[in-house]
Amino acid sequence: MNIVYFDIETKKSFQEVGGKLNIQNLGMSIGVTFSTARNSYKIYQEKNVNDLISELQRADLVVGFNHTQFDFQVLMAYTIFDFSHVPSLDLMLDIQAKIGRKISLDSLAEATLGLKKTSEGLQAIKWFKEGKLLEIAEYCCYDVKLTKLLHEFGAKHGKVFYVNNLNELTTVEVNWKPNAFSPSNTK
To answer: What is the spatial distance between Cα 70 and Cα 28, in angstroms, rounded to a whole number?
Structure first.
């Protein structure tokens, strides 16, 4: 099974494009995948966005963090392909459905793995404006790695952790085993 872990960074912020209704105007600066079939990362610039889209289309399962409502929507500006046909596991949406609120990748990774993100999306936009594509690629690769490690932990142990509003370590049970997903039950 080829699981493709995935994340993108954008060229612009929501403020610059007039809000979330204009997500298609954010533009991709860098996209990163990790494919279990090739056992390596791949970095895509905007000029190679069609190659990124092709890789996602061929995946047996795409795993990301808020990718169905964000990353896929940004990519819609580059294709007519309907990403709802891609077998997909959005870790953020799965956790949100279980606990009733959004939680960040950073919070889950720190509580579950003892790891933190290296930066945040607004910094990546600043780097893009400064022409620092290598910094964006490194940051995006690390986010993909955190997503992969979090998914693998959840698939192996059937749970992940976060710190709740009372500052208590809280368990969330998950069913992230790759064979639990097919195109019909991932929407």
So the answer is: 11
Total number of domains constituting the chain: 1
pTM assigned to the model: 0.92
Low-confidence ranges of the chain (pLDDT < 50): 182-187
DSSP string of 62-131, one letter each residue: EEESSIIIIIHHHHGGG----GGGS-EEEHHHHHHHHHSS---HHHHHHHHHS---S--HHHHHHHHHTT
The CA-based dihedral angle spanning residues 44, 45, 47, 49, taken in that order and rounded to the nearest 10 degrees = 40
CATH classification at residue 78: 3.30.420.10
The domain in which residue 33 lies consists of: 3-185
Pairing, β 28-35 against β 3-10: antiparallel
pLDDT value of position 12: 96
pLDDT at 180: 60
